[in-house]
Amino acid sequence: MSVAIFGLWRNWAVAVGLLTVLTMLAPIVPRQWLAPINILFFVVLQLVHAELRKRDVPSCSRLIQQVSTVMMITALALVGLYFFGSGENMYEITGQPYNLNSPVIVILITAPVAMVVTLWFWLERSEPLVCQRCKMRYGNVIEHGFVGDLFRKEWRYQTGLLFFLSLGLSVVDWVYYLFHYVNTNLNQADLFFFIWMPMAMYVLSLIYLGMRYYSLWVYYCKNDEGHFVERPGATTWRFLVIADDRIFMNFYPTEAHYPNGAKVKRFDTPVVIRTNYRERDDLNEAVRLFSDFTGIRDAEIKHAYTSPDGVTYQNIFHYFAFIGSTEEIGDSKLQGEWFTLGNVFQMAQQCLVDRDFVAEIQRIYRIAMAWKTYDRNGRRLYKIKHYRPTFHLRDLKNWEVDYNDHQWLKVARHNEDEFWYPLRRLFMRLPKVKGGTR
Fold it and tell me: 101 vs 75, which has greater pLDDT?
């Protein structure tokens, strides 16, 4: 828990710190080296991300990937600026002749780019690949645990902070550049607005976030070390009951409350069983538990995937339970209703489905569709561009898909139907070429 909390501060210090260092280097480094240095910083962030992924304790790398995007866009802008300045009779926005010997004011690029990128990620509703892979790597502690909730909340907080800092720097520095800057050299006022002010903002943000995360650590760890562990040493077995092309669900109260104190109720699978902690799933045990819990003896049980948890030891085993027909439920111990996949998607959009159930369906659907559409390298299995094969619940019984395989999540995001597919594949190989591990 302590590592997770202070890791948020460390990631901000490293990612935003590299952006600040680039600003500090701009006046003293020849302009042709600025883009390579920016790319080097991008590779450093990817190596940091790869190192964090190998650790047993989770760390939120979403901000690192976000700042990496800022760096790549900034590098492209610096390359364009360098070649733009190679022409004759070129003028800056202020109307001054373009001077190759004048220092490059990098903050005028990084601040607006960071503002746009952070706003885009802040408003983006789909979950990025880095978060999907984190859930697969660390399982329940991220997907449903307190640490995952902390990461989601603090990522939004840090993204908002970076957005407003970038917005403020963009407005102040661009106003000063347009009305007061002369591109012959850097005077004391130039140094203040373009170098020392961004540096001061970064240092103040480190102090502020350090105080914030120290307070969180005192509250959650020093005062109450067991606060975030609700059921230590527990394994949850979840079964998705499927018949024909329908899935069985029931309406349950959740841990959330409305403002009037009433409990929020949402649909979820009715077969959720908790036992003492088990490190590995056991199909025979799953069959026995399902049979005893539901009274259904002839269901075909198939393992879907595992949400591990080596931190708080509260893992989850996810299974499919295929029964012969919807009528068999009438003789069982279960209560609920049958829904089509379309019904489930509509209810999920209205926040009527439990978060655990939504996460299961999204993962199964995303990986199965990637498996049906592309090979493991993201190349289309069919020669029809943007072709989407069908997905039916009844077919899950016969598909041999590894829902624990990280590669299919990557394929779902980066495949041949994307315009930037060749370039993305090149960038995704860079950390491996440099000695990192993806």
Answer: 75
Cα(280)–Cα(419) distance, integer angstroms: 41
pLDDT in tens, 351-375: 899 988 998 998 999 899 999 999 8
Question: Who contacts 404 (Cβ-Cβ below 8 Å, separation ≥6)?
Answer: 136, 305, 306
Dihedrals phi, psi of 29, to nearest 5 degrees: -105, 135
Alpha-carbon distance of 62 to 19, in angstroms, equals 16
Render pLDDT for 46-69 as a digit per residue (tens, 0 to 9): 899 888 888 877 888 889 989 999
Cβ-based neighbour number of residue 93 at 10 Å: 9
Answer yes or no: are the C-beta atoms of 427 and 433 closer than 8 Å: no
Q: Which residues of 357-376 are buried (b: 16+ CB within 10 A; e: fewer)?
A: bbbbbebbebbbbbbbbbee
Mean pLDDT value across residues 79-97 = 62
Residue 155 to residue 63: CA distance in whole angstroms: 7
3-state secondary structure 239-305: EEEEECCEEEEEEEEEEEECCCCCEEEEEECCEEEEEECCCCCCHHHHHHHHHHHHCCCCCEEEEEE
Domains of the chain, residue spans: 2-222, 234-340, 363-433
CA dist., res. 370 & res. 363, Å (int)? 11
Nearest to 37 by CA among 48, 49, 25: 25
DSSP 3-state assignment of 353? strand
Average pLDDT rounded to a whole number, residues 115-126: 87
The residue type found at 413 is R
Q: How long a stretch of residues is the chain?
A: 438
Fold classification of 234-340 (topology level): Nucleoside Triphosphate Pyrophosphohydrolase (3.90.79)
Give the Å distances, CA to CA, from 16 to 134, 152, 188, 252, 401.
Answer: 21, 19, 24, 43, 39
Per-residue pLDDT of 398-425, as tens digits, reads 999 999 888 888 888 778 877 666 665 6
Question: Which backbone phi and psi does 204 adopt, to 5 degrees?
Answer: -65, -40
Q: Tell me the pTM.
A: 0.66
